[in-house]
Specification:
There is one protein chain. The protein is α+β, with helices and mostly antiparallel strands. The protein has one domain. Helix content is 34%, strand content 23%. The strands form two sheets. The chain has a four-stranded antiparallel β-sheet with strand order 3-4-6-5. A hairpin with a 4-residue loop joins β3 and β4. It is globular, with a radius of gyration of 15 Å. The N terminus is likely disordered.
């Protein structure tokens, strides 16, 4: 079953199969020009935090940025070439952004997000599928983290 954002005035939002990227979500965040975001909320990161902590990482949004870089470097080099970071002045086609405030706790609680324009929507969905698969395969996620622990210390994205 397809899902469509009913709040969108002209109903031009990206349609994706319900739950196909869960717990990641993909949505139109900017209308003109169209901009899309793939995000993983902080609460969802907790389910795999142990995979990271057992390998001396935190499972933070920055660790997920590194995971995205590692998985695309090996499995989707065409996407890897598009990665960048808003935080570090990136001007690439995909940009990592972290934002968020947990109003219940009253603290900043960063959300992992990757943004892209309409021309790269297909590749953003592919990235979502790669990350979704890693999220649900703890052994594979652990193997990827262990494959290059130094990557988590560098700001290479």
């Amino acid at each position: 079953m397809d899902r469509q954002d009913e709040d969108n005035e002209d109903n031009t939002v990206c349609r994706i199969p319900e739950g196909s990227l869960a717990p990641f979500s993909l949505f139109l965040y900017h209308r003109d020009p169209p901009g899309y975001a793939l995000e993983l909320l902080p609460a969802a990161r907790g389910a795999v935090e142990e995979v990271f902590t057992q390998r001396h990482q935190t499972g933070s949004e920055n660790d997920w940025f590194t995971v995205a870089g590692l998985v695309t470097r090996t499995e989707a080099p065409d996407i890897f070439e598009k990665l960048g970071s808003v935080e570090f002045g990136g001007s690439s086609r995909f940009e990592f952004a972290n934002y968020g405030f947990d109003y219940a706790v009253g603290e900043f609680d960063p959300t992992f997000a990757v943004t892209a324009g309409e021309e790269d929507l297909g590749d953003l969905i592919r990235l979502g599928v790669l990350l979704h698969n890693l999220y649900h395969d703890h052994a594979r996620l652990a193997e990827l983290i262990q494959s290059d622990p130094d990557a988590f210390e560098d700001e290479w994205f």
